[in-house]
């Protein structure tokens, strides 16, 4: 009764592979996650999404080196409790070939 079991791939590994294979998907994935930065209770989602994109585009060590920060600092910054500076955020985005942009939001009349 020796059945061969196919090697399981974790959700995270699959997500990283899909983002690596489809640049447009990675951009849309990160754009959607970045919307959570507006919510102090849900900021972790954006940071973890950026971490996943960093893993897909070179790995955290390579992205940290390109961004000019230590790998350990990048791990802390892109964690659920991370709080990156604007300088770090821009450097990491640049290292993965993206940039920060602004779009109009809902206008609240005064």
TrEMBL record:
A single GO molecular-function term is: DNA binding
Q: What is this protein called?
A: Addiction module antidote protein
Mention any Pfam family matching this sequence: dnstrm_HI1420
| Source organism | Sulfuritalea hydrogenivorans sk43H
Q: Which domain of life is it from?
A: Bacteria
